[in-house]
C-alpha cells in the first residue's frame, strides 16, 4: 500500500512542477518572438541585423521588466529559462565544433590565436578588476571581448554562477561596441597598411560575432571575408577549453576543503559539450543533424537571454555602467594591439 500511494502521488507532483514553469517560459517565448521580429525588420531595412535576436531579447526583456513587474507565477519559468535552458544550449554548442576548420588554418595561426585569446582574457580581467568590477563580471567581460562576445558571455555565465544583472550589463556594452567595431574597423586597413589577408585576420580576432565579421570584411574583399571567417571560427573553438578551465578554477576559488568529484568540479553541461565535440570529430553525429541542432541551440539561447532581461533591475545595471564600459573599451583596445602584434609576427602577406 505505501509504495502504491507513493506511486500515485509522484506524477501529479511532476505535472505540478511543469505547470509552474509554463507562465514564465511562455513570457520568455513572447519576448523572444518580439526580438526575432525586430531583427528581421533590421534585415529588411538595412540588409542585415546589426543587433542579433540574442541581444534584442535581453534588451526587450529588460525594457519590459523596467515598465512592468511580471507576476510571481512567472518566476519559476523565468528562472528555469535563464539557467537550465541556457545550460542545455551550451551543451549543444559542442556539436558545432569542427576540427577540420581548425586544422585548415595551420598550426602557427592556430597557436597564435590561442595565445591572443589567452592574453586578452588575462588583460581584460585585470583591467576589469582594476576598475573595481566584481570578479564574475570581470570574467564575463574578459571572455566576451576575447572569444565571441555574447555567445561567450552566455556560455561562461552558468559555469561561474554569474548573476543576471552582470550578464545583462556585459552583453549590453559588448553589443554596442560590436556595432561600433563593424563600422570603424575598415578604417584601420589604410591606417596600418594592412593587406586583405592581414585585415581578415584582424577582423576575425577582434570582431565579436561571425555575422559581424562578414559585415566588417565584405567591404574590403573576398580574401578578407574568407580569412576573417576562418580565424573567427578557430577563435570560437577556444570557448570550449576556456569554459572548461573556468569551471576548474571557479571550483577552487569557492574554497572547497576536499577535492570534489568530477560531477561537481565540471558541470554536467560542460561534460555534455565535450562529449558532443568528440562525437562530431569522430563523425558519429550525422551532418543532417548539425543544422537542426544549431537552430535548437539558437532558440534556447534567445529564450535564456529573454529570461535574463526579465530578471534585471535596470538601476543596478546603470550603477555599474561607467566601469563596465571603460573596461570593455580598454580591453578591446588591448585585444586589437595584441592582434596587430600577431599579424606582424606571423608576417602574413
Secondary structure: elements and pairs:
Elements: H1 2-46, H2 53-67, H3 75-92, H4 99-104, H5 107-130, H6 135-148, H7 150-160, H8 164-184, H9 188-192, H10 196-206, H11 210-217, H12 222-237, H13 239-253, H14 262-265, H15 268-281, H16 287-310, H17 314-319, H18 321-346
Distinctive features:
349 residues, mainly alpha, 18 helices, 81% helix
Quick overview of this protein structure:
With 349 residues, the chain is mostly helical.
Protein structure class: mainly alpha
Overall morphology? globular
What do the pLDDT scores average to? 81
Could you estimate the helical fraction of the residues in percent?
over 70%
Poorly predicted runs of 5 or more residues: 256-265
Q: Counting H and I runs of at least 4 residues, what is the number of helices?
A: 18
Give the SSE string: HHHHHHHHHHHHHHHHHH
* Radius of gyration, taken over Cα atoms and rounded to an integer in Å: 21 Å
What profile does the largest beta sheet have? none
Count of β-strands: 0
Q: How would you describe what is shown here?
A:
The structure is a single chain. This protein has 349 residues and is mainly alpha-helical. 81% of the residues lie in helices and 0% in strands. The chain is built from 18 helices and no strands. The chain is globular.
Amino acid at each position: 500500500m505505501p509504495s502504491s500511494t507513493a506511486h500515485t502521488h509522484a506524477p501529479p507532483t511532476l505535472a505540478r512542477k511543469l505547470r509552474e514553469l509554463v507562465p514564465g517560459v511562455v513570457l520568455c517565448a513572447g519576448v523572444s518572438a518580439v526580438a526575432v521580429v525586430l531583427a528581421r525588420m533590421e534585415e529588411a531595412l538595412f540588409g542585415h541585423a546589426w543587433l542579433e535576436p540574442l541581444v534584442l531579447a535581453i534588451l526587450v526583456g529588460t525594457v519590459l521588466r523596467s515598465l512592468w513587474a511580471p507576476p510571481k507565477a512567472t518566476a519559476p519559468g523565468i528562472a528555469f529559462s535563464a539557467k537550465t535552458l541556457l545550460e542545455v544550449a551550451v551543451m549543444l554548442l559542442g556539436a558545432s565544433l569542427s576540427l577540420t576548420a581548425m586544422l585548415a588554418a595551420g598550426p602557427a595561426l592556430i597557436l597564435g590565436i590561442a595565445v591572443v585569446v589567452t592574453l586578452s582574457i588575462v588583460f581584460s580581467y585585470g583591467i576589469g578588476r582594476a576598475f573595481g568590477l566584481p570578479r564574475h563580471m570581470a570574467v564575463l567581460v574578459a571572455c566576451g571581448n576575447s572569444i565571441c562576445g555574447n555567445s561567450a558571455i552566455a556560455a561562461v555565465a552558468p559555469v561561474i554562477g554569474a548573476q543576471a544583472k552582470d550578464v545583462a550589463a556585459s552583453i549590453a556594452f559588448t553589443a554596442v561596441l560590436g556595432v561600433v567595431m563593424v563600422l570603424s574597423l575598415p578604417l584601420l586597413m589604410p591606417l596600418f597598411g594592412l593587406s586583405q589577408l592581414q585585415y581578415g585576420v584582424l577582423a576575425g580576432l577582434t570582431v565579436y560575432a561571425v555575422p559581424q565579421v562578414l559585415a566588417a570584411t565584405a567591404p574590403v574583399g573576398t580574401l578578407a571575408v574568407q580569412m576573417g571567417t576562418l580565424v573567427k571560427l578557430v577563435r570560437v573553438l577556444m570557448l570550449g577549453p576556456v569554459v572548461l578551465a573556468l569551471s576548474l578554477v571557479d571550483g577552487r576559488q569557492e574554497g572547497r576543503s576536499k577535492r570534489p568529484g568530477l560531477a561537481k568540479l565540471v558541470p554536467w553541461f560542460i561534460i555534455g559539450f565535450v562529449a558532443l565535440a568528440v562525437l562530431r570529430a569522430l563523425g558519429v553525429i550525422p551532418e543532417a543533424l548539425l543544422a537542426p541542432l544549431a537552430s535548437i541551440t539558437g532558440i534556447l539561447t534567445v529564450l535564456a537571454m529573454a529570461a535574463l532581461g526579465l530578471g534585471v533591475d535596470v538601476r543596478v545595471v546603470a550603477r555599474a555602467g561607467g566601469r563596465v564600459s571603460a573596461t570593455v573599451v580598454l580591453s578591446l583596445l588591448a585585444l586589437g594591439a595584441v592582434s596587430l602584434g600577431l599579424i606582424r609576427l606571423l608576417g602574413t602577406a
